[in-house]
Design brief:
globular; 4-stranded mixed β-sheet; alpha+beta; 10 strands
Length: 197
């Protein structure tokens, strides 16, 4: 069992070199450097609104495009989340959040079930936000769910501005996960009738 609910994961491939340290019971302290400005912004928002301490150092083949760095960062973040949760004893397990950002509204629900699954709905008006392709927002969420071993439903309810929609989604993810990973003082064991997650 991981009593301090933290993890450091390092993953190196021929395309990327990424190290992430995640502390679930933090204060939202973060240092994020991926070489992709909007990804840094989203991960900082994720840490701040989930109250996770998060350190991200990523280098990748940005001379090709941003896909590998964004995808592999989601892989490592998911793995860090999974490891930090340990056996998942005492957690709430499920969480949800609505987050507005100006004209945009996003909703995310998660179940730290051990069963990776994603349903994602968003309509984008632009091909990218800064240097972050908008189609990779969904891919980031899917990849995080697979490697974090959780069920994730996310939708941008509406919005005119893609930056606002994406940021609302990441903030809703942060708050939904915070609710799910927080410890329930009344629960002793694993929150499942199966006895395992």
């Amino acid at each position: 069992m991981n009593n301090n609910r933290s993890a450091t994961i390092h993953r190196q491939t021929k395309e990327t070199d990424i190290q992430i340290t995640l502390e679930l019971d933090g204060r939202g302290e973060h240092h994020v450097q991926t070489g992709i400005g909007f990804l840094d912004h989203m991960l900082a928002a994720f840490a701040a609104h989930g109250l996770y301490n998060l350190q991200v150092q990523a280098t990748g083949d940005l001379h090709i495009d941003n896909h590998h760095t964004i995808e592999d960062t989601a892989i490592v973040l998911g793995q860090a989340l999974d490891q930090a949760l340990g056996e998942r004893r005492g957690i709430n397990r499920m969480g949800h959040a609505y987050v507005p950002m100006d004209e945009a509204l996003a909703f995310v629900a998660v179940d730290i079930s051990g069963r990776p699954y994603t349903v994602f709905r968003a309509e984008w008006r632009t091909a990218q936000i800064g240097e972050f392709p908008t189609d990779l927002v969904e891919h980031f969420f899917e990849t995080l769910a697979v490697h974090g071993r959780l069920t994730l439903h996310a939708r941008a309810e509406y919005g005119r501005n893609d930056h606002h929609q994406a940021e609302a989604l990441f903030k809703a993810l942060a708050r939904a996960l915070r609710m799910a990973v927080d410890l329930d003082g009344r629960r002793i064991g694993i929150p499942s009738t199966k006895g395992i997650l």
